[in-house]
């Protein structure tokens, strides 16, 4: 197997994590909308926690992309 092919396969495997990130972000915001719909008065308490969860989940996506780019170009 050539090195370029191995790098492409490794980067593809590293990007699989983005599937989980997409599901996680969708889950976070669907539950956030459901919580605000049930109790609109709790928006000030629930919304910052949802945004924090989004930021942490998005960080996982950035780490996965970083690893994929390191595999491809290093």
List the helices and strands and how they pair.
Layout: H1 3-15, H2 17-38, H3 43-73
Helix pairs in contact: 1-3, 2-3
Description:
The chain is an all-alpha fold and 74 residues long. It has a single domain, classed as F1F0 ATP synthase subunit C (F1FO ATP Synthase, Up-down Bundle). Helices cover 89% and strands 0% of the residues. The model has no long low-confidence stretch (mean pLDDT 94).
Short description:
The protein has 74 residues and is mainly alpha-helical.
Number of domains: 1
- Helix and strand pattern: HHH
Helix content: over 70%
Look at the structure and give the mean pLDDT: 94
* Biggest pleated sheet: none
Number of discrete helical segments: 3
- Structural class label: mainly alpha
Oligomeric state of this protein: single chain
Strand residue content: under 5%
* CATH architecture descriptor name: Up-down Bundle
Overall spatial form: elongated
Low-confidence stretches: none
CATH superfamily, called what?
A: F1F0 ATP synthase subunit C
In CATH terms, what is the fold-level topology? Answer: F1FO ATP Synthase
Give the number of DSSP strands.
0
Keywords:
F1FO ATP Synthase, 3 helices, 89% helix, elongated
